[in-house]
């Protein structure tokens, strides 16, 4: 009996030690950072448009959400401040001089990069990845000309003030950057700044190709992969190439998720795709957004790209790159989807109105 008790005590002690080391690694390694500059598993920023139905703003205010909260919170910071969640997260690269580190990899991509011309030859996709041999973050967003080159320090472009925008950050273990790299290859990103230390070149060949500007042969016109965050959140990454000429929401994501979707994306007048009920699963366009405050604004003032399940029991939320408009059918890009209950609830409540078929 004493022997069994001792074994149990040793097992519990080893488990606690393992958990302590994992938490210590999470805190010390590269990760998404919250408004207090603490490491977290994920956050979402919803930048408000400059003009809402009830007021005129600066175009710099934003709503903030992470897993510790129950609803959106109007941040006391502005999106151009290095003291907010985006500033703290990217500050690991800027203020921390992470871009000079021989052990840190990073990649900036944007089809409208800062200081460079707009690029129609690459995917309609924007984001940053940064990681070391333990973990890192993937920050996807919808902001043209953002973020600045590493040497410039953190800032937010004046061109990103007028419309609503989103930033979605997830912390991942090192191993997850292998499937993330593959998904990025399918999205054909316009890489405008990249660093991959020599020790990682052999282990991250796809990122090495992206950094070198190489476009490899892809076996399919689309790819879907399961990703798992550092703290166990399951996500699905959908990516299509320009060879898959169709609306990603209607023809693929809604059908594969087996869920009718409400989609909030910017649609240029004359180029829009209307709500679609032609397939088994429907996609309906959101027309109005309501966030706590209250802040009301029309979808034509919002450059965010997201969708939610129409039925609460399906509970899907996807954030990503592509708009529901004709020209986007020919662009590379994707969506990252989750069934996180909190994320679904706040985005579903944000829908003020939508167009039926």
Automatic annotation (TrEMBL):
Pfam family, one: DNase_II
Superkingdom of source: Eukaryota
Catalytic activity reported: Endonucleolytic cleavage to nucleoside 3'-phosphates and 3'-phosphooligonucleotide end-products
Keyword Translocase recorded: no
Enzyme Commission code: 3.1.22.1
Keywords: Hydrolase, Signal
Molecular function per GO: deoxyribonuclease II activity
UniProt-listed InterPro entries: DNase_II
Signal peptide (residue range): 1-22
Record-stated family: Belongs to the DNase II family.
Name of protein: deoxyribonuclease II
